[in-house]
Amino acid sequence: MSAAVLAYEVLLMALFSLIQWHHFAYLVVSIALLGFGISGSLLVFTAPYLAGRFRGFATSQACLFALSALLGFLLAQRLSFNPQELIWDHHHWLRLALVILLLTLPFFFAANLIGMALIEFRDRLAQIYAADLLGAGLGALGIIGILFLLSPSQALILVSVLGLGAAAAIWIECRGRAWSALTAFAIATLVLYQLPADWSEPRISPYKELSQTLRIPGTRIIETRSSPLGVLNVVESRNLPLRHAPGLSLNARTEPPPQLGLFINAGGMSAITRYRGKREELAYLDELTSALPYHLQQPDKVLVLGAGGGAELLQAIYHEAGQIDAVEINPQVAELMRGRFAEFSGGIYEHERVSLQLAEARGFLQRGAATYDLIQVPMLDSFASSAGGLHGLNENYLYTIEALQQALSRLEPGGFIALTRWIKLPPRDSLKLFASAIEALKRAGVEDVAQRLILIRGLQTSTLLIKNAAISTAEIEALQAFCKTRAFDKAYYPGMPASQANRYNRLQSDYFYAATQALLGDEREQFLRDYKFNLEPASDDRPFHFHFVKWRTLAELFELRYRGGSALIETGYLTLVITLILSLALSLLLILLPLLLAKRKQASASVRFGKLRVFTYFGALGLGFLLIEISFLQKFILLLHHPLQAAAVVLASFLIAAGFGSAFAQAFTNSLRARRIAAYSILIIIMLGSAYLLLLGPLLQLAGGWPLSARILLSVILIAPLGFCMGIPFPLGLASISIGAPALTPWAWGINGCASVISAVLASLLAIHFGFNLVILIAMTCYLLAALSYPVAVGGQVEAVMLKTAAG
Amino acid sequence: MVLTMFGNVSYRNFITTVVEVLLVIALLAPPVKSANPDNGFLAQRENMIRLIEADVRATSAYLTRAALDERVLAALASVPRHEFVPADLVDKAYRNRPLPIGHGQTISQPYIVAIMTDLLELEAGQKVLEIGTGSGYQAAVLAALDTRVWSIEIIEALGKRAGSVLARLGYDGIELRVGDGYYGWAEQAPFDAIIVTAAASHIPPPLVKQLAVGGKMIIPVGSRFSTQELILITRISPEEVVTRQVLPVRFVPLTGSH
Predict the structure, then answer these.
(1) Are the Cβ atoms of A568 and B59 closer than 8 angstroms?
(2) In which residue ranges of chain A is CATH 3.40.50.150 found?
(3) DSSP readout, A507-555?
(4) B34 within domain boundaries
(5) Average predicted confidence (pLDDT) for chain B
(6) B226 interaction partners in chain A (CB closer than 8 Å)
(7) How far apart are CA A520 and CA A509, in angstroms?
(8) What is the mean pLDDT of residues A400-427?
(9) Is residue B215 domain-resident?
(10) CATH number reported for the structural domain that contains residue B202 in this entry
């Protein structure tokens, strides 16, 4: 059952990345915890009535889980919640709340079942808790395997079936008739698989690029692949060319040849361009800002980080680069480019000058030693989502200072890194990258930083060049010519006078020029402080390159939303803040309120315990556990390279280890040493946490280039001891109060659940503003607090009770 | 029948019941709409215009003008925006926000429509090309300025719907076509103004070529629900254009001495 729940949780992340945007993934963690919390507090009322009816209750809850897992999602996606309308319409707040509630249902039912099992089989508490965590871990890992085989919507049905299977198993285990359970299971499964396919099809937001492209007459999806890395669609347009050439110069005289659209999770279109070996057909690639480095030098060895549909490979071929290393993370993209679309794309993935590397960009930078004349970092996201600020929360380990440093170390003397980004106005993205480049050069010990940078901008894109030497006069002349013929503006080059700025695409005031000058000058700190967006360079500790919101300006931005300022607010960030508010409200309402009501009825039940202690202990544990889990989840993307992969491995390792931890704790629940064991485990957590604060960064960097299996193994080794210890304090504390004051047990669950819900969202917010290290520090403080407030009965009454039990 | 049904009820009781029922109905029923069905919308529309005026005044420094052209405001005040939005969103038609119109498209925020139209500096009788008809609202606003409008929409259903709405409302100066807008409308070129509401990955160079000398082209850039900037291209000679990127909002990213 737990396996099904966690599989469902990870699956929801995958589905939301597909139908909406990636940041909803973290919403899912909150939703799951909310379901568990509500269940915990409702069991306070219902447990007495349910005692002795375990078989029927548990079976029904498993069935309800199966049903709501499927229907909850299907209904939720029909609510047409649109994050982009959050700023316009408070109805979408309501819809978001409804989506949360609908998706909470399956977790609620599952938690009912698990909670009731814990109560029913009280004597085997830790064993059940351990089985729960173990199953959860397996589920999280299992779904990753399943996503290689099945599409997300098929996997959704499978999870439902798993729930039904659990129902049948419970019935049989509790001495129900096996044949009737099995027949019911078989029939229900059959029904699920007979559901019309379009019912369970994910409904992709109509504002995502794939949906938008499919509106064009004559377009259709001609190829679909699915893996944990995302759903891949290739779109053909028979009537009209797709003409994908982001940032094409207004002066361009050529058009792109016929293209196919390549979509990952229905967003971020890139193009597979037809190539028949005719160089002149690729001339449009010379009309983009990203073509600049080829005009300053004739690079021999080129590295393209993110080959995708191959536009940057063609650009390198057009400019007659000698040898091109193409890095692509998604094996299915490579398979399509080398297989079905090899002919269409002129076999560029197997071109004589191209060598394909299946790797994640950051990992590739870490692993190899080869050096390049040019490292191209293309745009991998789409303009619409960039403009809408939908990436505000995405961790990105390619635009951090550390990543740029690594890229610098892979340059030939005099080589270039070229980073192309969509332009945001007022400028944010390009300037933050400029600031990161300055920092990376400084850290690499470069003194003439100002001599090594060039930034140009067209109407829609900007390209930043970082050179591994001082930029020469000849290169500046080439830059002038390149920009003039294409009507691109120079924002920065060494020794640029103000008169050169703002020539072609005129802004009210050339923020780009002013900002780059300020960032390189003495007033840098002042500028960063005064600028109304956050331009602090992203680092591995705070890898949020796309996050620009400053709290200080949030109110001003919100005020301006009707006056043309709507694009200034990051939807992703706004969603996170609203989610925090909603989850706080919902968890208070649904978890603590019932408990408060219940408390009135049985006010005298718990006199022997310091309630404050219980509150603090379980609250702190909930906060601490989730803060650590979520920040590891985000941090380990650096190692595991993809959010979903990281989610599965990290969740599984934590849960399985914590499962073992609580099984271990089982031996001590009735022991006088319980408190000491809990204290020791917390001590180890704090020690490990401190060690990781220092060591994790370098360690993750070091291992970045290892093969996937080794990286997964390392993650498990790193997480397991921490998870093991984190599994211990909760059951020990629970056992302690279940002896001393059973009436408080649901409170413990409820408070723990409530704290977990909040901390899941809080972890992201804190990480964005203060970095992961601080989140882990706070988590350790929580654990320390827990250690200090371990719930023992006042005056050693638990011991007395225990002695009595032992004697009896 | 009625009498037999109320056979054992006294006449007086019957009257009282009827009066009561009528009272309840009167209380529950929505207020009766006034004779002119446009009245409610007219007031809403005037309110919307006042809002836009105030907002533009606040943004004027960026638009390099103190206020919107009176004629643009009059045009906006004359177009029944509620006719261009889906039936279930009619009550939100005059809110200063973009609205979804189906097919993954939106009708722009009135404030942005006003600013874009204003930046084109249109004269009566001029020729305007629109790429991306959408709801047809923008075309109607252009036509209300006594310009001749050619508009191209790629999504057939949208094009047809806009066509029938515009015809019903009597906008005769608009010619619609369903198809690809990349190459503009060569038969009618050059144009005094071009408005591109359907953003692509880049601005189609062929469109720039269909701009008359002195003509202006405007392109909103952003996502469906928020406009980041307006690109304004002015042809100053047969060979040369000048491009401006206009922020539609009064927002200075730097504070202090800058």
Answers:
(1) no
(2) 264-540
(3) -SS-HHHHHHHHHHSTTHHHHHHHSSS--PPP-SSS--TT----HHHHH
(4) no
(5) 82
(6) 84, 87, 387-388, 566-567, 569
(7) 19
(8) 94
(9) yes
(10) 3.40.50.150
Tell me the range of A72-76, A684-688, A804-808 where mean pLDDT is highest: A684-688
Q: Please tell me the distance in Å from A244's CA to the nearest CA on chain B.
A: 6
Looking at residue B65, its pLDDT comes to 66
What tens digit of pLDDT does each residue of A511-533 get? 999 999 999 999 999 999 999 89
Residues A265-293: what's their mean pLDDT? 92
Interface residue of B156, B160, B202 to substitute, partner A, most A CBs within 10 Å: B202
CATH number, span A264-540? 3.40.50.150
User: Average pLDDT of B102-123?
Assistant: 91
**Start-end of CATH 1.20.1250 domains in chain A:** 602-808
From the CB of residue A433, how many other CB atoms can be counted at a distance below 10 Å?
24
Shortest Cα distance, chain A CAs vs residue B38, angstroms: 25
Tracing tokens 């009209």 back to the chain, one arrives at A240
> Which of A288-297, A301-310, A539-548 is predicted least confidently?
A539-548
Element (H, E) at A457: strand A453-457
Judged by a CB distance cut-off of 8 A, whether residue B223 touches chain A is yes
Confirm or reject contact between B96 and chain A (CB < 8 A): yes
In a domain, B3, yes or no: no
Higher pLDDT, residue A640 or B208: B208
Least Cα distance to A656 among A715, A701, A614, A603 occurs for A715
Residue spans of alpha helices (H) in A570-703:
571-587, 593-601, 611-635, 637-640, 643-666, 674-703
Helix axes A24-50, A611-635, angle to 10 degrees: 150
Q: Are B177 and B154 in contact (CB under 8 A)?
A: no
A602-808 is classed in which CATH architecture? Answer: Up-down Bundle (1.20)
Helix%, strand%, coil% for chain B, nearest 5: 40, 20, 40
Q: Which domain holds residue B107?
A: 39-246
Question: What chain B residue is nearest to A518 in terms of C-alpha separation?
Answer: B258
Per-residue pLDDT for A19 more than 60? Answer: no
Strand-pair partners of A304: A326, A376
Structural domain count of chain B: 1
Q: Is residue B18 part of a domain?
A: no
CB–CB of A394/A434 below 8 Å? Answer: no
Higher pLDDT: A463 or A426? It is A463
Distance of residue A429 Cα from the nearest chain B Cα, in angstroms: 13
The answer for residues whose C-beta is within 8 angstroms of residue A654's C-beta and 6 or more apart is A137, A629, A632, A719, A722, A723, A726
Task: Place B42 in a pLDDT band, splitting at 50, 70 and 90.
Answer: confident
Query: CB–CB of A106/A68 below 8 Å?
Result: yes
Q: Name the one residue in this structure whose structure tokens are 């004697």.
A: A807
User: Could you list the active site residues of B?
Assistant: 108
Q: Among A214, A428, A508, which would you mutate to test the B interface (most chain B Cβ atoms within 10 Å of its Cβ)?
A: A508
Q: Do B201 and A383 touch (CB under 8 A)?
A: yes
Cβ–Cβ < 8 Å for A77, A2: no
Flag if A564 and B223 touch (Cβ within 8 Å). Answer: no
